[in-house]
Specification:
single chain, alpha/beta, Rossmann fold, Dihydrodipicolinate Reductase, domain 2, 2 domains, globular
């Protein structure tokens, strides 16, 4: 089913290698490119595909239907624009998060891919984590009533040398939770952010978003934490959801339960080894990408969703830089 498509990868760093493994498993990988040719060759040798030192040669030699862009963050927009503008054979682009480093650059990419009718998915992969989908469906089913307070805790460690290629903490890891927020709460809101810097770049921070509707979102984002934490706590008018995004477990607590009473646990069938934590959401990203290329439908994370997350990123930057509260508006999803 997938074999009819041909997909290449631009960038063979950590995420590029993950995409290569899954695309090879799906039978659609036709080549990889990286300006560091030794890196490209290492990945290419594993999957028996050609390696190139630039994406132009990759496209010209392998004639792919689609490309995955997994290069350093600050290059996403320029590479996507050039590919979309120059190559009519490209029917799909999967761009690693974020879409771009700035909202202005993101809008340029959105304009060209829409004009060329290129299926574009931005890999906010946490949206594809089955635990997140289950939580959103429970919220939509009124399992906990009206969401009131949502706490997002996303912390880990990034070596100082890698920070410039990844951009600030808001664009690098915050986009995941900003997109999740937009699927839970919409409307006008006020945002306040604080952040500390590493090498002159925002590297950890807290963000508070208060919606006129009454819901509040609190974000703890850090890349200088000795460990890895991916948790969400959603408190509603009738109960709460406690999410372990790594362990892929949801615990449901109802307000009428005794404090020490056993909670309802929902164990998803996808729960498993660490490889599933990293690999399975990305596999769902790629499955959605391939499906949308074939059908022409809009991916679960569209270019417009990515622009919405970037609007929050820029509001965080402005607030953290000025100390001011910033007015934002989260538009409803399709």
């Amino acid at each position: 089913m997938c074999a009819a498509l041909k997909i290449g990868i631009v960038g063979t760093g950590n995420m590029g290698r993950i995409h290569a493994r899954i695309l090879d498993d799906l039978g659609v990988l036709v080549g990889v490119a990286d300006s560091a040719i030794d890196s490209a060759k290492k990945t290419a040798d594993i999957y028996k595909v050609p390696a190139f030192d630039d994406f132009h040669t990759l496209v010209e030699k392998t004639k792919p239907d689609a490309l995955v862009i997994s290069t350093p963050t600050f290059t996403h927009a320029s590479i996507a624009e050039e590919i979309a503008s120059k190559y009519d054979c490209i029917r799909g682009l999967l761009i690693e998060k974020p879409l771009a480093s700035t909202l202005e650059d993101g809008k340029k990419v959105a304009d060209i891919v829409k004009k060329k009718n290129i299926v574009t998915l931005v890999s906010h992969s946490e949206i594809y984590n089955p635990i997140v989908g289950k939580a959103i469906s429970l919220i939509e089913a009124d399992a906990i009533g009206v969401p009131r307070v949502i706490i997002h805790d996303r912390r880990g460690f990034v070596q100082s040398s890698r920070i410039p290629s990844l951009g600030d903490v808001f664009e690098d890891i915050g986009v995941h939770d900003f997109d999740i927020m937009a699927r839970i709460s919409q409307g006008k809101a006020k945002l306040y952010a604080q952040s500390s810097k590493e090498r002159g770049i925002f590297n950890s921070g807290t963000v508070m978003v208060n919606f006129e509707s009454g819901s509040e979102h609190f974000f703890h984002l850090s890349r200088q934490y000795a460990g890895r934490r991916r948790y969400m706590d959603v408190s509603g008018s009738k109960g709460s959801l406690m999410l372990d995004l790594f362990g892929q477990i949801i615990k449901v607590q109802h307000l009428d339960q005794e404090h020490k009473a056993a909670t309802d646990s929902i164990n998803l069938p996808e729960r498993g080894a660490t490889i599933k934590v990293y690999g399975e959401p990305v596999r769902e990203v790629l499955n959605d990408f391939i499906s949308c290329i074939k059908s022409g439908e809009t991916p679960r994370v569209s270019v417009d969703d990515a622009l919405g997350a970037l609007e929050v990123v820029e509001a965080c930057r402005e607030s953290a830089s000025t100390g001011k509260v910033i007015d934002i508006e989260i538009k409803p999803k399709r």
